[in-house]
Amino acid sequence: MIQLVRGFKDILPEETPRWQHIEKTVRTLFEDFGFREIRPPILEKTELFKRSIGEDTDIVEKEMYSFEDRNGDSLTLRPEATASVVRSYIQHKMYAADPVQKMYTIGPMFRRERPQKGRYRQFYQINAEVFGIESPLIDAQLIFMLVNLFSRLSVTGIRVHMNSLGCPGCRPDFKKNLSDFLALKKQLLCENCGRRIGRNPMRALDCKVPSCREAVSEAPSILHSLCSNCRSHFEAVSRMLEQQGVGFEVDKRLVRGLDYYTRTTFEIQTGELGAQSAVAGGGRYDGLVEALGGPSQPAIGFAVGFDRLLEILPAKDKNRDAGPEIFVAALGDESVIKAYLWATDLSVAGISSEIDLTGRSLKSLMKRADRLNAAHVLIVGEDELKKGEAILRNMKTKEQYLISVNGIVENIRNIICQ
Length: 418
Ligand code: HAM
Description:
Elements lengths: L15 H17 L3 E2 L5 E3 H8 L4 H6 L1 E4 L5 E4 L4 H10 L2 H4 L3 E10 L11 E10 L4 H17 L5 E7 L6 H14 L6 H6 L13 H7 L11 H16 L5 E2 L11 E9 L7 E7 L3 H4 L7 E7 H6 L3 H4 L7 E5 L2 H16 L4 E3 L6 H10 L4 E5 L1 H5 L2 E6 L5 E5 L3 H9 L2
Parallel strand pairs: 1-5, 7-8, 12-13, 12-14
Antiparallel strand pairs: 2-4, 3-4, 5-6, 6-11, 7-9, 9-10, 10-11, 14-15, 15-16
The protein binds histidyl-adenosine monophosphate (HAM).
Histidyl-adenosine monophosphate binds next to β6, β10, β11 and α12.
């Protein structure tokens, strides 16, 4: 039997109501904050990710699903959405109409990591990206919106971690200090971090290898190297979050795993997912639009790990599998044909219905209605049909109504809408 690809999964029909519940909450919230949906493709030129995420990152070095197209182009299944949204912003010259654009997108991403709980090779993200706003108020608003999403979904026990990564003006000094510091600890660093000391020493700050964590425990803090503009930006974001009652922790080691970030970076962490503690992450990427060939425009965004969010959703929201409003149980060939037409009419009229066509006994039909979590069962036997009647049973209260088959859809509607 052909099995799933390792690290990929099916989202089964009994699980999709929870996915839809989150999607609905996201769409309502984000649209209320002025975001519009964008749906970029899943496949992009490999170059896009190399130039945005950075050649020295784990994602580009070893996690991308890249292949050569028949015409020789190198293509990649997107490992994240930000690069695509930026490409689209530039390609469609969205900035010409209005440099300020707020967009969100929900969809699958692909990274060839080692699969474990909370880590998949195809996973889903909820992304929000804002272009054209330099004010620290937008940083605060995005973080506020993100935290609000978790509270709307009744998720508790999350912590906001925040840091600043400075700008091209002040970061080089910090990188130099950090390189010097890491050079003294080289024997503790893993092979990747050791190799990256010169070009990309900041990657060592969020390396998960225990000896690297030990090596960087006393590394210098970037916050001490910020220029005055970056410092006042960070302070303004912090002040506004405090004013809005959003608790956060300043985390000097939070550098994120992608190279495009500048200034504010943040993560939402939880203790409930073992090693995969980040449920969401994001930050500013003020240089990326220009680096990819667009005009100089600031930008900021975040992505929520959909699969991880589902795992920390409270139990009551995990079971949202609503069954059909009407389960039609017809007995005998003639009844089945009549009932088939009524079930179709019910569905067309917006009353969800399911008719059983397997010819089972009434007892097993009732069992199936129960399993499907049907709200009502419409029972149609040969005897009732002769009298022009059918029985409608409320599965919760167990009440039964004898209804006329003349105008059956309206008769049913009158009862279920009582
Ligand atoms: P990221 O931190 O790489 O950021 O991913 C964001 C979130 O996606 C993570 O916090 C995690 O919840 C989830 N995630 C990442 N990898 C996996 C995986 N293998 N399995 C399950 N969930 C995963 C970004 O992707 C940036 N593009 C975020 C961003 C948007 N920054 C600015 N705008």
